Input
Amino acid sequence: MTKSASQTPTPKRQRAATKATKAIQAIAAPTLAATTPKGKLGDIVQMMRREEGARLDEMMTLTGWQAHSVRGAIAGAVKKKLGLAVSSEKSDAGRVYRITSPQSAA
Output
């Protein structure tokens, strides 16, 4: 008795099925590593998660970046790529940035 082509997946179909499964898992279950980057960007995110938030000058000192680079990282990486909600308020000590909500679950 021979198996039909529909019963035996070809290697190409197996690879496609594996890729699709991995893609679904990546979308369905975001990990903490995905929401907390490493390096200088991770340091910025941790500072912004503090109750008191993070001032621009603190983040500049921590990373060694200029002000426009810190603001760009907040807008591009933190808000857009990580999907975190960031609030900004002006105080006597300067502008304070806070992460106001965790990444939305997909």
User: Anything to note?
Assistant: The two ends are 46 Å apart (CA to CA). The CA atoms of residues 8 and 14 lie 10 Å apart. The first helix runs from residue 11 to 28. The first strand starts at residue 54 and ends at 55.
